Amino acid sequence: MARGGRGCHLGLALGLLLALVLAPTALRAKPTVRKERVVRPDSELGERPPEDNQSFQYDHEAFLGKEDSKTFDQLTSEESKERLGKIVDRIDSDGDGFVTTEELKTWIKRVQKRYIYDNVAKVWKDYDRDKDDKISWEEYKQATYGYYLGNPTEFHDTSDHHTFKKMLPRDERRFKAADLDGDQTATREEFTAFLHPEEFEHMKEIVVLETLEDIDKNGDGFVDQDEYIADMFSHEENGPEPDWVLSEREQFNEFRDLNKDGKLDKDEIRHWILPQDYDHAQAEARHLVYESDKNKDEKLTKEEILDNWNMFVGSQATNYGEDLTKNHDEL
């Protein structure tokens, strides 16, 4: 990237840094604006609508994703079955000829996270400098911090110096956590976990630790009530606190501080920002297996899935007579 003056470069560098590296945490919110720390990935499935029992729309969007489900709606039954057969081969990760509930759940979760993988694909070439389809820590460090490392005097005694000095070791720690095989290079899956740790189970501890470090201003390893509130709200003037701040203080005392010692430890932070909600992907996978498992062996063959293709990919022209309720011009 060509250098466009110190101010221009710093703005771009910090913009990239904050956009990719500070996720899922955020910069301080404006006064009186509440910040949301609870991690609820956009990729998660919502509740199954009660009116969807016949149209299979929820099943289609869970199994294919919203965009691909629209594409399948325009295909003939023969084309849908052909494509579904190819998808089944990909879902059967161990190649044993059966699709288990766990394999289906893994597929559904991946489909729902597709926008994340699309995002990684867009930035991949910016970091994979030697084009070996891997990103080493050195490649990422040079792409993100290269200018700072090469020109340290420009950052001396500035807030940017403090930011880069803090973020570099934090990035390296996160990179190592994402690098499951420890070879100091990231595959696409590992790099996705690095950029979006909130989406990966093995990265949850990093999410908790980074949240603690962001909020724990006195460095005692805990989050007290004042730090908890300061992360959401800051006084510009010595006026009264908004009602929602008072409500958050009550939330802290009653629901966040589980052991009632006046502060949050890592376990309490995890309970706060990573709530153990209902697993919609697991429920959908069980539903698809139950509805398609003819011999009740709790796993599906490709034949069983293709026999019930309408539930998995379907076509709006064949879903329970939906074609009778629409004009032909709309199909």
Automatic annotation (TrEMBL):
Cell location: Endoplasmic reticulum lumen
One example GO MF annotation: calcium ion binding
Location (main, coarse): endoplasmic reticulum
Signal peptide: 1-29
Domain EF-hand: 79-114, 115-150, 166-201, 203-238
Highest taxon listed in the record's lineage: Eukaryota
Any Gene Ontology CC annotation: endoplasmic reticulum lumen
Cited Gene3D superfamilies: EF-hand
Keywords: Calcium, Endoplasmic reticulum, Glycoprotein, Metal-binding, Phosphoprotein, Repeat, Signal
Keyword Metal-binding included in the entry's annotation: yes
Family: Belongs to the CREC family.
Summary of the function given for this chain in its UniProt record: May regulate calcium-dependent activities in the endoplasmic reticulum lumen or post-ER compartment.
Name listed for the protein in its UniProt record: Reticulocalbin-1
Gene designation per UniProt: RCN1
